[in-house]
């Protein structure tokens, strides 16, 4: 535990600039939304921008891990590191998650403020009757999506660098990586379209009847988002994705410890 704590603190310190850059981009996007709001004289633009910022947080953890892992590859900080691959990867995931959650909570607060503010003016309507149900569901979905993509980043980074040890593949790592990704996508789509898998997804479904849709009115136009209307959650599907994440994580660890030279 002491070794992991040390790795975690190291990752927090090394990634501080990343968090500050992300915060600066967050603020820049808000000012851009304000500028567009004033230019077009449409008060609904800023709530829309705030929702876009929130959704974009799904890529926060993957982007953090790509940057952090590339730093490791260039600096050789992991060379001869006595800690296990599990601790090395978990430390990065934990540090990234801390910054990710802070930024996500700020984005959720901003969305909540802007939607409610606009709601009083008649712009974005029927997003939530109570303060938190929709926001909490969106937040949980973004967190889970970001973690899922982040673990795949760990795998592909490990796979890419493991090809260094294969002389014939060393100069073709990107084509091999892209080809492998396409192959996994084809296999995944095939499995998901199987009747057995479709029936499996329908088991353990929870319907969220309290959710409301998003109605965005800009000028004379009206756009209703069905993102969260009549939402359903499949517990079986969640278990399958959790198992995939765990399996992919440990494959990435195995590649790091056995095949990757960083």
TrEMBL record:
The chain crosses the membrane at residues 18-36, 48-69, 89-115, 135-160, 172-191, 238-256. It comes from Cytobacillus citreus. Keywords: Membrane, Transmembrane, Transmembrane helix. Signal peptide: none annotated. The keyword Cell membrane does not apply. It comes from the Bacteria. This is ABC transporter permease.
């Amino acid at each position: 535990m002491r070794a992991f704590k040390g790795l975690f603190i190291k990752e927090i310190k090394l990634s501080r600039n990343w968090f500050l850059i992300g915060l600066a981009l967050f603020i820049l996007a808000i000012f851009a939304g304000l500028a567009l709001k004033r230019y077009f004289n449409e008060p609904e633009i800023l709530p829309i921008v705030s929702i876009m910022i929130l959704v974009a947080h799904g890529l926060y953890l993957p982007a953090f891990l790509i940057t952090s892992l590339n730093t490791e590859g260039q600096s050789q900080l992991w060379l001869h590191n006595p800690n296990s691959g599990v601790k090395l990867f978990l430390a990065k995931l934990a540090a990234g998650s801390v910054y990710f959650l802070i930024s996500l909570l700020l984005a959720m607060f901003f969305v909540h403020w802007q939607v409610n503010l606009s709601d009083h003016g008649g712009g974005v309507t029927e997003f939530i009757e109570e303060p938190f149900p929709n926001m909490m569901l969106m937040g949980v979905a973004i967190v889970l999506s970001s973690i899922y993509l982040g673990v795949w980043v760990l795998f592909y980074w490990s796979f890419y660098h493991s090809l260094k040890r294969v002389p014939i593949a060393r100069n073709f790592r990107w084509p091999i990586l892209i080809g492998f990704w396409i192959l996994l996508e084809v296999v995944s789509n095939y499995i998901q379209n199987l009747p057995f898998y479709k029936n499996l997804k329908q088991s353990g479904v929870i319907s969220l009847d309290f959710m409301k849709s998003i109605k965005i009115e800009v000028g004379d136009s009206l756009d209703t988002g069905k993102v969260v209307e009549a939402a359903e959650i499949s517990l079986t599907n969640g278990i399958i994705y959790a198992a995939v994440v765990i399996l992919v994580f440990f494959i990435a660890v195995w590649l790091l410890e056995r095949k990757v030279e960083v």
